[in-house]
Design goal:
Layout lengths: L4 H13 L23 E11 L8 E14 L2 E10 L1
Length: 86
Amino acid sequence: MLPRPWLVFALVLAASATFAMADPRPFTFTYDTYPEGKGNWEYEQYITYRTHKESDKSYTSYDFRHEFEFGLADNFDLSIYVARGA
């Protein structure tokens, strides 16, 4: 007998939740300057919702930005940004 789809979904969801890690961000709208450290990496995703321009009241936009940050040395990081608007 095959497992029920909801059971498989619940197990996959529970297993994937254990891989998620996050650090607190002290200030929401500013960049922190904490270096990652040599050999470490970080992925951040930003989503911005914009709506209602003065010229177009039905305007709606979602802006996505992905940041990949790599620690090249203990005090030097390299960040790559990928921006995408929808």
